[in-house]
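Help!! Second protein's tokens look totally different from the first
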Amino acid sequence: MEGVFLMTCKELIEYLSGFDPEEGVAALILDLESRQAYKPKAYQLMSGAEFPVLLFELGEASPLDEMVEQVEEGGELDAGTDEA
């Protein structure tokens, strides 16, 4: 699976250690080429693999530039699941 790993478990654990363990975790999947952002509709944590695998089902696309503008204007970023 060479080339699939974007970070190490150590990096992720160090990042998450700065947050309350009961806090929710958000995810945004970005397509920078088309300037689109996707909120996940659902996620799964894959078990049985030799390494951690997070699976995300993509929701509707939203214009990335509009999301950035909303945050820059003091709005909150809604990066929760895109439940239909």
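Here's the second one for comparison:
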Amino acid sequence: MSEKSESVRVLVVDGAPDARAAFTGALGARFSLEFAKTAAEALAMVAARPPAVVLVAARLPDKSGAQLLAQLRERVPEATRLMFGPVDATLILEGVNQAAISRYIVTPWRAEELSAVLDEAVALSAQARHGRLLALGLLDARSVNGLSEAAASYAHDMCSPLSALATNLERLEQHVPAVANLGSQAGRAGVALDLAQRDATQELGDITHESQQSVGALTTLVEGLRSRARPPSGGASDVGMTLANVLPWLRALVADRGGELVVEHAASAPLALAPAELAGLLVQLVGDAAAVLAPALAQRKVTLQLAPERDGLRISVADTGPGLSKEERRQVERTKVTSTAPSLRPGLAPVRERAIRAGGSFQLESAVGQGTTVSVWLPCADAR
């Protein structure tokens, strides 16, 4: 990816004197980085402006990285939590048990690996933010009359984070033999491991195995939810009413990035799409556009247009973000909801699949330095 990714703010917490130079050299061209040297400094920065990703050293001057991440888990639960440090089973277990970290990165880290991890963090952060909005009642079925439709949609969208979690657990499992082998090598070298370290190595393997079982059980539950929920194509949306229900939250999504939301809406017939599906589509479209509004941009604006077209409705969302190259645009268009590969615009895959399920179409127009416009056409209820 040639352009800087502004869809994620990364807070790096490391007390090492050369931390800023090292991380800026490896990641500064692609990510918006902020730095703190202590846990206290990091907490103050998070209170002023929550980050999307937190990358914390396992050992800090004033407390452990796991202790800080545990606090951040409570304060900014949608932020992706990453920790880095030496190969140490005790440190890894602290991160997993205390802070539910998404990844432990072994030092010395490689720039390519770290960059790939942060790409994954973009998708995970977007999924977490969407889930938080749902929990606040943004898509409450009582306000949009579609509980079973919402269940089918949300179960479908949950597949992506579950797949990413399963992949990360497989990677963690691959490190378990390496940690155990280090203990054997230390024993042969005459370096004794205490009982706690040996127990920690065993516990790491047990946790990995139990977590994989939990992912399997969650996947089974999601599939059950999808099979029992009524398909989302079985309702009709009053476009004006649905827009009015979600508009305050759409404005909040854009304002959170320091931007302005402009809405242009012309009356249209009811759509062949359940209200919960339409609300979810609007949230995904506007939220994805808002995510690229970086502070460095001269103008931060998202324009939402809803206008009748043929026997349906054209929904267009344009942003003033950095835009995408041709190759980046193709990569976004190929990304699927269930894909575990990182995506530059992770919110667009669910939009595309929702539109296609409803019998509509999806278009993406973008150029570097000229922003991005996403356009979705949906059929009216009478046209189906």
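Reply: Different proteins will give different token patterns, so don't panic. Residues 135-147, 230-234 have pLDDT under 50 and may be disordered.
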